[in-house]
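Re-run with default settings, no changes from the original entry. Doing this only to confirm the output is reproducible before filing.
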Amino acid sequence: MRVKNYKSVGILMFLVLMSFYSFGQNVQVKGTINDENGQPIPGAAVLVKGTTTGTAADLDGNFTISASPENTLQFSFIGYKTHEVKVGNQSTITVSLDPDVSDLDEIVVVGYGSVKKSQLTGAISSVSSKDITDQPITDARQALQGRSSGVDVTSPGSKPGASPQVRIRGRRSFNASNEPLYVVDGIPTVGGISDINPNDITSMEILKDASATAIYGSRGANGVVLVTTKRGKSGKTEVSINSYYGFNKSLGTIQVFDGPGFAEYKRESRRATGNYPEGPATAAADEALFEPVELDGIAQGRTTDYVDQLLRTGIIQNQQVSVSGGNEKTQFFVSGGFFQDKGVVKSQDYTRYNFRANIDHKINDKVRFGTSTLISYSERNGENFNPIGGAMQENPLGKAYDEEGNLIFLPTSDGLRTNPLAEIVPGANIDLTKRYRIFNSVYGEWKIVKGLTYRVNFGPDITIDRNGRFTGSQTNARRGGDPTGSIDENFIFNYTLENVITYERSIADDHNLKFTGLQSIQKDNLEETMLNVQGIPAESQSYNRLGDASQITLANTYLEQWSLLSFMGRLNYDYKGKILVTGTVRADGSSKFGANNKFAYFPSVAVGWNITDEPFFKSNKTFDQLKLRVSYGSIGNQAIDPYQTQALLGRTTYAYDNTPAFGYGPNTIGNPDLRWETSTTFNAGLDFSLVAGRISGSMEYYITTTKDLLAPQPLPNSTGFSGYTTNIGETQNRGIELTINTTNIDNGNFTWTTDFIFNRNREEILSLPNGDDITNGRFVGQALTVFYDYKKIGIWQTDQKDLANSFEDEVGEIRVEDYNGDGQINADDRQILGSAVPDFVMGMTNRFNYKNFDFSFFIYGRFGSMIRSRFHDQFNSLFGRYNNLAVDYWTPDNPTNEFPRPNQNQESPKYASSMSYFDGSFIKVRNINIGYNFDKSIASKLGMSSLRVYSSIQQPFIFSSYRSKHQGIDPEVYLDGEQGAGAGEVNANISPAVTSFTFGINAKF
């Protein structure tokens, strides 16, 4: 029996609980706690309800506790339902606890329906609202990081409003999108979920294998994230207030030379060319090299830290009020929210306002309808603006302000570098994006007859983006020239209309069938208007009167439309809940493809076996659940831009009878045979629960092979075209995933739980039409993107002069590996150095509860990846003109192998890119949270039903060799290039990583 398996655990819990034993003032109540079979439960907890007085049952299940007749005793143990007994005049109480199988009965959203967790056949992970709201986040996708196996989420830096990049089980495609599909309240979205307040979300389910995602066909090619928002419940109207306020501090900055360090670096760049005397610096030599302001800086020991003056203490806050409730016919949830993130870099911030109304109404026992409405407005400053890079290059010997405190636009005579602080003068640089979003999910449901239900879903989605940019005359981009301005406005209207029919039937109580049929249409319309000008007469106009400008440099409009027609059928069958079968067939027709290939068909099948329900397993005393799952299926990808099957025209200029004129000619090559990418996945999974739910989790193994990849192929320039889009090659992802949830300690006063995830994904190109494609950086047997470059093996030293010369190098320069051993360095010596794809990813959350206190911390790590730090080549020119990273460079007296000798004759060191590759492994402490829940008696005196106050620290520590050894800040990078950062790159467009300190309150009335 299960109780025998708990004895060792019970002994430990008994000892711990006894330390919290307390004596009351009234009667001693004794008794025994048994399981459903009448066997004692050692270590079971007994708690006087509403107090912290508790004890634990001994090895025979016996207990003694002090309580008054008015008290109620709560009896609990892991894996059993809590049982309550009023003391009254009883002095002896014997109770039997019933097994709690709620984890197995938990309902999981699977798309177009839901099932019990024990009946799942696909690979699905869940993230709860607790995980989402544990940390102050801008975007709910950030909560997926390290909390769901198989999901790789990256959020480099701290630029306000930046979206995390999500990849589920690796990347499949070269050119088509690798972003998963987001389905909000049943409606697939095109606009993403960045506009949704994370506090409005109940849960997120991640569908990973073909069986789980096939119901969404081509839209689910890269996995699916189902987002379920909060809804009202019948009963008392409840008002909730969730509020936090905090501040951000930079975790550091990339270090550049201070004033004295820059002066010596500049001298050394001249010594290398014989333009400065060897040996210690002299006043005469300095006077010939430095300009007056630099000499003054040297004499004063001045260091102007421009980067520091661009940074500030950031502020982050979130305020939300929600009201929910209802009766038997109508339930509602209404919320309003305000979020603001003022970044640590001046002129960067993000503000969002949200309103949500979720309403469900039952007309009668057969018909009900409802709606989920989101209205969002946001403003983002600095999306395309970051002055940090320019500040790092500015001469630290210069002066930012004169004696009267006025900004000096040219701190030195170098006309290519202006004062970085001029970039943040109010009105000098404006980069403001305003975003309006209205997203609806409207449904109607009709129970036609018993077991047969019809549902219609309609989801209109309207987004208006308006980016306005202005660059004033007194900026580094204009350097006294005419101001420029631009407007880029997008109007996006997307809608989804779905007809869903569901039929359920049981045969002889042993055979259960459920059929789901779907017909769906999705249409998307994008209209874009762009206008760029130069010569704005008054800078106060910014970009608001572009018609007054002296020159229009760009004026264009753009229309893009596409549609998707889909049909789907899914059949679920189970035999006594033991044997589970799910079969799905989906047909998708996309307007993005030519007439020959518009439709594609994607089947899948999954089988599950609940082993613990078999008679031969009934004698098992360890497992509460043991379920084996196997699935196989195909899904497609059509996430390319429209019109790539067609030959398009472009405007050109020509001379007509010596008169300039415009004409139109072929601009792209069409490909009417362009067809769907197809990914086929095999998945094997094992779900388990043991020791009465004390340990539970899942293991997954998968292989996904993707064929007919959509990608551009280059053409010879003689054709007049650079290339065309076609289907090429084959890729594969294979990996393992592990999720473990444990309850380490659980008694009346203290609980400790741990959630752990691990995933390893191997991403590989299996074939290319012509073998390795060096031009596009694609190599058979490697990840989809790799770093292909020369490998730095040191610096040429004095005693290697002859060998260096044989490679046409000089002492003090970078030494790279002669990869092919032919005695010379050329393009053939480039090699694959590594990839940003990690070997494995892990995440661990620990939660502790002691009486009214709760404490948690979350750790996340990526291991075995390589990153490219563009700081180490773009800001490491060692040219002696601009400031430089504070690196350990080579000199005759400092024969280091780290970085080459500065040289004024080289704008960049030979093989400079080889200096920029580093190990990208890291461990981050993502979140530490401590809270206190006030007793209900205290909360009620304040007019509340519950009250919690808390404080949290986000990302206090980053452990990484890139940070500790190489003066970097944050090695977290995007896998694919986007948002101003290349694939696997750290660059100056990414704002510094920060530590956030927040203080919050959760109150319910």
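The longest strand covers residues 551-575. The chain is about 10% helix and 45% strand.
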